[in-house]
Design brief:
Length: 88
């Protein structure tokens, strides 16, 4: 099974079943704190990416959570630490 997209009901669909009905999985909720590797877990990789983006604003700042001033700063660092561990 390989995933091809999300249907209109918010479910992940696969590319093998032509009816897209056999393997419909609910889409997991977003996890913005997993800004480094997309592993659905907030950990050291995300922390290191956040440190690398510190002080930057604009395109390419995956760790800017929209807190405080624009860009990656202490607010994002504290928010990342508050969500350390598995994503909800």
């Amino acid at each position: 099974m390989y995933l091809t997209g999300i249907d209109g009901d918010g479910y992940v669909i696969n590319g093998i079943d032509p009816g897209n009905t056999a393997f419909r999985l609910p889409v997991p909720p977003p996890c913005p704190w997993d800004c480094g590797d997309g592993a659905r877990q907030v950990g050291i990789t995300d922390f290191l990416v956040l440190l690398g983006q510190r002080g930057r604003t604009g395109i390419g700042t995956s760790c800017d959570f929209g807190l405080g001033a624009a860009g990656v700063d202490v607010e994002e660092f504290l928010d990342l630490l508050a969500h350390w561990g598995p994503c909800p």
